[in-house]
Amino acid sequence: MQMLETVLSRRSIRAYTDEPVPRETIEGLLAAAMGAPSAADEEPWQFIVIDDPHILENLPSVHPFTPGSGHAPAAVLICGDLSLLRTPGFWVQDCSAATESLLLAAHAMGLGAVWTAVFPLEDRMLGFRILFSLPDHIIPFALVPIGHPAEEPPTADRFRKERIHYNGW
């Protein structure tokens, strides 16, 4: 798949088959996530791979808008690690870039995934902090359920020329 095609055809997948996603594949996705750009090359992220069916089934009790997470064979919780910061304030952008890289890699590999927000919602952050016994310097950022897609949402043309400004407003 060509890169531009990958970017333009990626869609949020919320329904998955029962086919498992091997840990080696998850590690490939995480290699893509860790290849994302970060301010001052800090790489202020940590990742929790969730492939235990019991934990996956209980994720909606922590995050009510994790469609499909109970049916996805795996999920990744992307976290910001405040102890790795030398230039405070950029970890959210860095974790966003890592999350998008993971999503694009999943799509390029024929998998489905969806970005479900955790940060900055206090109830969700607290729920994940408790569920995974996160230390204070680790901030849960986003949960990404991953699996083989059981749906194929159509691509959409989201290009809006009227939102482009050259050399000023």
UniProtKB/TrEMBL annotation:
It holds the Pfam family Nitroreductase. It comes from the Archaea. Keywords: Flavoprotein, FMN, Oxidoreductase. Signal peptide: none annotated. InterPro entries: Nitroreductase (IPR029479), Nitroreductase-like (IPR000415), Nitroreductase/BluB (IPR050627). Residues 8-59, 92-148 form the Nitroreductase domain. This is Nitroreductase family protein. It comes from Methanoculleus frigidifontis.
